[in-house]
Design brief:
This protein starts with a helix and ends in a 12-residue tail after the last helix. It is globular. About 5% of the residues have low confidence. 37% of the residues lie in helices and 22% in strands. It has two domains: 79 residues, Fe-S cluster assembly (FSCA) (GMP Synthetase, Chain A, domain 3), CATH 3.30.300.130; 271 residues, Rossmann fold (3-Layer(aba) Sandwich). It has an eight-stranded mixed sheet with strand order 10-11-7-12-6-13-14-15, sandwiched between helices. The chain is an alpha/beta fold. The chain is built from 13 helices and 15 strands. The longest helix is centred in the C-terminal third of the chain and has 23 residues. It binds adenosine-5'-triphosphate and magnesium ion (MG).
Length: 373
C-alpha cells in the first residue's frame, strides 16, 4: 500500500491515548511526520503528555505495529518519543482559581486574542484556535468583540442567525463546529453598527459576558478589535483575563503595533501568553517543502524573545485559510491535513500549555477597576 502522509495518519488513528480516549492524530500527538514511499520509510515524533506512563512506554511499539500491519513489514519506522507537560485530563484547567473574583459564568479561563494592527488575522486565528481546542475535547466559547468589523458569523457560517433569549432572560450562544459563539454582529446590522457609540458598545459587551448563558467552559476566547480602546478596557474591567495571545504578521509595521498591544496588556496586568505569527511564509501547493518568507523572516520570533514570551505558532499563508473563512468552515475542519491546520493544532496545544504555566506560576489575574471622572 502506498505510503503517504494521509494514509499513515489514517492508520495511526487506530492508536488511542488512554487518559482522554481520543486517537493520537486527533489529539495532535503526532508531529514532524516524514514519509518516503520510495525508501519505504516513516519517521515521526510522538508527543506523550506525561513521562513514565504505560502510554509513553508503549507508543513507539504501537506506531511500528500499526505501520507494519497496514503497509507491510518492509517499512522502516522511526519514532522519537517526546514528553510534553500537557494535561489532557483538564485537571489544571478545571481547578478553581484561588481568590478568583466572582463572575456570573462557569468560564474557567478568558483568553484574549489581540493585535495592534488590523487585518493581521486575529479573527482567523481565534476561529481556528477555538475549533482546534474543541477538537481536542475542551469546552470552548468564542466572543467576537469587534462591533465595527465582526467576522465570526461569516467564519462560522452563522451569518444572519440571532441568539435566542431563554426563560431566565439569558442570551443563549449559537453553536457551530463545537464552539459556542456570540458576536456583536448578531446584535446589530452593519449599517447600525456605524452609529453605535462607545458606551453602547461597552454595555453590549458586558451583556454578552454577564447575561449570556455560556454554561461550563474551559476557555472563552475573546476576539478583540484592532488597537487599544474602550472595548479592551471594558474587558479587563469585567472579567479576569488569564492571558492574551497577540497576533502579528512578519512586517515591521505589524510587529511595532504588536509590541504596543503587548504593552497595553502589561499596563493592565494581563499576562501575554505568547505571540502568533500569521502569514509567516508561503509554500506553493506543488512545492510543499519550499518556504517563501514573503513579508520577512524571523521578526515575530525576535519580538517574542525580546519580550520574553513564547512564539506560539507560525501560520503559513494559504489560499485554503481564506476560502475556508469565507465559506464558514474554518480550515482546521475544511482542510485538516493542510499545513495551516497543523499549525493551528500546534497553536492549540501551546496555548493550553501557556495557560497551564500561567496558572501554575502566577496568581490569577484580578479584574481591574478603572475610575472615570
Ligand atoms: N494564514 C492566512 N492565509 C491566508 N489568508 C489569511 C490568513 N490569515 C488571515 N487571512 C485572511 O486575511 C483576511 C483578514 O483576516 P482576519 O479577518 O482574520 O483579520 P483580523 O485581524 O481579524 O482583521 P480585523 O482587524 O479587521 O479584525 C481574511 O480575508 C482572512 O481570510
Ligand atoms: Mg477581526
Amino acid at each position: 500500500m502506498l505510503l503517504s502522509p494521509e494514509s499513515v495518519l489514517d492508520a495511526l488513528r487506530q492508536i488511542e491515548e488512554p487518559s482522554s480516549g481520543h486517537d493520537v492524530v486527533r489529539l495532535g500527538l503526532v508531529k514532524g511526520l516524514a514519509v518516503d514511499d520510495a525508501a519505504r520509510s516513516v519517521a515521526l515524533t510522538a508527543v506523550v503528555p506525561r513521562e513514565g506512563t504505560p502510554f509513553a512506554r508503549d507508543v513507539a511499539d504501537a506506531v511500528q505495529r500499526v505501520v507494519h500491519e497496514t503497509f507491510g513489514s518492509d517499512v522502516t519506522v522511526n519514532v522519537l518519543v517526546d514528553s510534553a507537560p500537557i494535561d489532557l485530563g483538564l485537571d489544571v484547567l478545571n481547578a478553581p482559581q484561588k481568590n478568583a473574583p466572582k463572575i456570573p459564568t462557569g468560564v474557567r479561563h478568558f483568553v484574549a486574542v489581540a493585535s495592534g494592527k488590523g487585518g493581521v488575522g486575529k479573527s482567523t486565528v481565534s476561529a481556528n484556535l477555538a475549533v482546534a481546542l474543541a477538537q481536542l475535547g475542551y469546552r470552548v466559547g468564542l466572543l467576537d468583540a469587534d462591533i465595527y468589523g465582526p467576522s465570526v458569523p461569516t467564519m462560522f457560517g452563522v451569518r444572519g442567525q440571532r441568539p435566542r433569549v431563554d426563560e431566565a432572560r439569558k442570551i443563549v450562544p449559537l453553536e457551530a463546529h463545537g464552539v459556542k459563539l456570540l458576536s456583536m454582529g448578531m446584535l446589530v446590522d452593519d449599517k447600525q453598527a456605524m452609529i453605535w457609540r462607545g458606551p453602547m458598545v461597552t454595555s453590549a459587551l458586558r451583556q454578552f459576558l454577564g447575561d449570556a448563558d455560556w454554561g461550563e467552559l474551559d476557555i472563552l476566547l475573546l476576539d478583540l478589535p484592532p488597537g487599544t480602546g474602550d472595548i479592551h478596557l471594558t474587558l479587563v474591567q469585567t472579567v479576569p483575563i488569564t492571558g492574551a495571545v497577540v497576533v502579528s504578521t512578519p512586517q515591521e509595521v505589524a510587529l511595532a503595533d504588536a509590541r504596543k498591544g503587548v504593552t497595553m496588556f502589561e499596563n493592565v496586568h494581563v499576562p501575554v501568553l505568547g505571540i502568533v505569527e500569521n502569514m509567516a511564509y508561503f509554500s506553493p501547493p506543488d512545492l510543499p517543502d519550499r518556504k517563501y518568507y514573503l513579508f520577512g523572516r524571523g521578526g515575530a520570533a525576535r519580538l517574542a524573545e525580546t519580550l520574553g514570551v513564547p512564539l506560539l505558532a507560525e501560520i503559513p499563508i494559504e489560499q485554503d485559510v481564506r476560502e475556508a473563512g469565507d465559506d464558514g468552515v474554518p480550515v482546521v475542519v475544511a482542510e485538516p491535513l493542510s499545513a495551516s491546520a497543523a499549525a493551528f493544532r500546534d497553536l492549540a496545544f501551546d496555548t493550553i500549555r501557556a495557560v497551564e504555566l500561567r496558572v501554575a506560576e502566577a496568581p490569577p489575574t484580578q479584574k481591574i477597576d478603572i475610575l472615570y471622572r
